[in-house]
């Protein structure tokens, strides 16, 4: 577990051009780096299914308030034995640090711009006019790769606030005997929920293990199609003065990188050990919400 390289706010600002995918797949495209996940990659990923074992990568919808769940999911029963049928009502704000969700490319603004240079005014009180979560209505099906950072570093879980470096990612690759490549959905485990089970909840806005901004060029070079984590991908604090959420900002706005936040990767990590491989078919199917900035999601890994 090494120290991240020193970066400044100017360095991160420079990533908006050096790592930009604006115009790479046309001026009007809506998918960003998911353009890298081509049909042949999906076909190849399907061949990874050998045992049929399926593993959810989602947390249960979090209905209990806690310091790390400031806006719990509301779940009410509107049909019970009294009414003669079972029925539910639920409501949620999927962004934050508790609900497993997929960010749409309209989620983050940078200097008043969205991915592709679109004006932030396209995100209106009635929803996003472009880059909404409904653009992924056909789902994401491809090769998932788990990089289990605690396993690679010989610990149960990363301490909150620990920055993950490129060296850590490559150590996890070497430990798993795999290489992240074009069109992959990369899942990075920090052991967040293991830490929470042992130490109790804490405020993740102050401290959360995740990727240091210096990993962004590596993600761009490896042509990752989608990035997910049991945190929010960004390390908190960022370890860069005057910069917050650089992975979200550069990843979504400059690169067009869709992010999966607050996953539960512990069962997947156990399955990878038992199956003796860290690659699998991954299926991600967001809700079709026209103009939505996110969707709760339950990614399924199939071995």
Structural account:
It is a single chain. This protein is α/β, with parallel strands linked by helices. The chain has one domain (9-62, 94-302): Putative cyclase (Glucose Oxidase, domain 1), CATH 3.50.30.50. It has 8 helices and 15 strands. It has helices at 9-18, 39-46, 149-153, 166-176, 192-199, 216-222, 246-255, 266-275, and strands spanning 54-56, 74-79, 87-91, 101-103, 123-124, 127-128, 140-148, 163-164, 185-189, 210-211, 226-229, 258-261, 279-284, 294-296, 300-302. The strands form 4 sheets. It has a 9-stranded mixed β-sheet with strand order 1-15-13-7-9-11-12-4-14, with helices on both faces. α1 (9-18) packs parallel to α7 (246-255).
Task: Give structural attributes.
303 residues; alpha/beta; Glucose Oxidase, domain 1; nine-stranded mixed beta sheet; two-stranded antiparallel ribbon; 23% helix; globular
Topology, please?
Layout: H1 9-18, H2 39-46, E1 54-56, E2 74-79, E3 87-91, E4 101-103, E5 123-124, E6 127-128, E7 140-148, H3 149-153, E8 163-164, H4 166-176, E9 185-189, H5 192-199, E10 210-211, H6 216-222, E11 226-229, H7 246-255, E12 258-261, H8 266-275, E13 279-284, E14 294-296, E15 300-302
Parallel strand pairs: 7-9, 8-10, 9-11, 11-12
Antiparallel strand pairs: 1-15, 2-3, 4-12, 4-14, 5-6, 7-13, 13-15
Q: State the total count of DSSP E strands.
A: 15
* CATH T-level fold name: Glucose Oxidase, domain 1
Output the helix-strand order: HHEEEEEEEHEHEHEHEHEHEEE
Name given to the CATH homologous superfamily:
Putative cyclase
Radius of gyration: 19 Å
Gross CATH architecture: 3-Layer(bba) Sandwich
Number of structural units classed as domains: 1
Name the quaternary structure: single chain
């Amino acid at each position: 577990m090494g120290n991240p390289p020193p970066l400044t706010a100017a360095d991160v600002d420079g990533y908006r051009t050096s790592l930009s995918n604006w115009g790479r797949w046309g001026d009007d495209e809506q998918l960003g780096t998911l353009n890298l996940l081509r049909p042949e990659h999906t076909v190849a990923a399907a061949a990874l299914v050998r045992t049929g074992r399926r593993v959810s990568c989602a947390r249960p919808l979090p209905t209990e308030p806690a310091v790390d769940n400031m806006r719990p999911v509301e779940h009410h029963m509107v049909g019970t034995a009294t009414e003669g049928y079972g029925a539910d009502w639920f409501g949620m704000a999927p962004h934050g640090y508790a609900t497993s969700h997929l960010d749409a490319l309209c989620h983050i603004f940078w200097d008043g711009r969205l991915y592709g240079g679109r004006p932030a005014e396209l995100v209106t009180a009635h929803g996003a006019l472009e880059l909404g979560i409904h653009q992924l209505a056909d789902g994401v099906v491809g090769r998932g790769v788990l990089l289990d950072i605690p396993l690679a570093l010989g610990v149960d879980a990363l301490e909150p606030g620990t920055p993950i470096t490129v060296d850590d990612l490559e150590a996890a690759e070497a430990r798993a005997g795999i290489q992240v490549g074009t069109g992959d959905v990369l899942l990075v485990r920090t052991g967040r929920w293991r830490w929470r089970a042992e130490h109790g909840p804490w405020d993740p806005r102050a401290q959360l293990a995740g990727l240091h901004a210096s990993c962004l060029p590596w993600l761009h070079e490896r042509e990752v199609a989608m990035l997910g984590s049991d945190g929010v991908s960004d390390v908190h604090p960022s370890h860069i003065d005057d910069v917050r959420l650089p992975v979200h900002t550069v990843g979504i706005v400059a690169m067009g990188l869709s992010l999966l936040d607050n996953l539960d990767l512990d069962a997947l990590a156990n399955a990878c050990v038992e199956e003796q491989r860290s690659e699998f078919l991954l299926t991600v199917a967001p809700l079709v919400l026209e103009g939505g900035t996110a969707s709760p999601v339950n990614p399924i890994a199939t071995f």
